[in-house]
Amino acid sequence: MLILTIRTDKPEAELGLYNDAAQLAYFTWQAHRELAETIHLKLKDLLTDQGERLSDIQGIVVFKGPGSFTGLRIGASVANALADSLQAAIVGTIGEKWLPQGIERLLAAENDQAIIPEYGSLPHITQPRK
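Below the sequence we write its predicted C-alpha cells.
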C-alpha cells in the first residue's frame, strides 16, 4: 500500500511516502506562512522523485493536532480532499508516535473517512475592525 503522510502543525511542514511501513521518502521544509502555496508543489516533487503519481496513493496518515490552527486546517483540508478524490483510506492520529500508529491503522484497514483537526484549545478569534 502506498501511503502519504502529512504533518502541518508547526512552521516546518512534513510529507512522507511509505510502501506499507517502509519509508520511501520523507521531506520537510520551512512552510510557515506559505504552507497553502507550497504543500501541493512539495507533494508533486515528492511523488515525482519516487516515480509515483497521485493516483498511486492508497492511504493517507495525517497528524491532526494539537498545533497551529491554520497549519492543521490546511493539512487536514488537503488530506481530506485527496482521500475523497482518490478514494483512499485516511486516518488521523496525535502524539509522538502519530506516524507508526497511523500506518498501523491503515494496514489494519481502518478508515476515518475524514479528518477533523484537534487544536488543543479554542481558536483565538479577534474582533473585526470597524
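The chain has a mean pLDDT of 95.
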